[in-house]
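Bug #77: duplicate submission created two jobs. Keeping one. Sequence:
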Amino acid sequence: MTRKILLKVSNLKVSYGGIQAVKGVDFEVAEGELVSLIGSNGAGKTTTMKAITGTLPINAGDIEYLGRSIRGQGPWDLVKQGLAMVPEGRGVFTRMTILENLQMGAYIRDDNAGIEADIDKMFAIFPRLKERRDQLAGTMSGGEQQMLAMGRALMSRPKVLLMDEPSMGLSPIMVDKIFEVVQDVFAQGVTILLVEQNASRALSIANRGYVMESGIITMTGEAKQMLSDPRVRAAYLGE
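Kept job's structure:
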């Protein structure tokens, strides 16, 4: 059965700070897939994510979502269409409470009963957030902020969830928790594009993977096969 392509990136070129960070990238994410985009720091992964979500202008190429070009659309429009992002560095509203951050994630919705039900759902997924619901987000640990950023994005009920380096800077225990939640969210039917430096963890939960180096895609394939590929193991798994 051929799966519907939800997100398609074609010949994408993006400059950032006077440098061409993305140099003609092609990839796609089909409905019901978890796709990992791996690569070392500075490979152009985050620039690609920012271009997809409309926070960086693109120089050339196109980005299609649900079969239509979204080039030039703002992040707020894309969230309304079901494309949500958990940004690198978490980006929580530090002077708002945990509850207020989650409510902000649902700003495009007007179904109050549904919003309340989804807040309860986020608290069930992240019990630590429930315990601290009235605490200011800026006073939380990095791992707690990452949970909040994920919960806030999920409050928009996305069709496609983009996640940029969710495990960065977290303790091993918190990394385990974050990847566990990513798998749970995926199991509930959310299509995911995961950008990660932690290649082994990212590929171990993905259907397919892409390797990005110096602004280009250098390798793609089934995630399990990539995990055993000597080139991937040498470059990203320290072997």
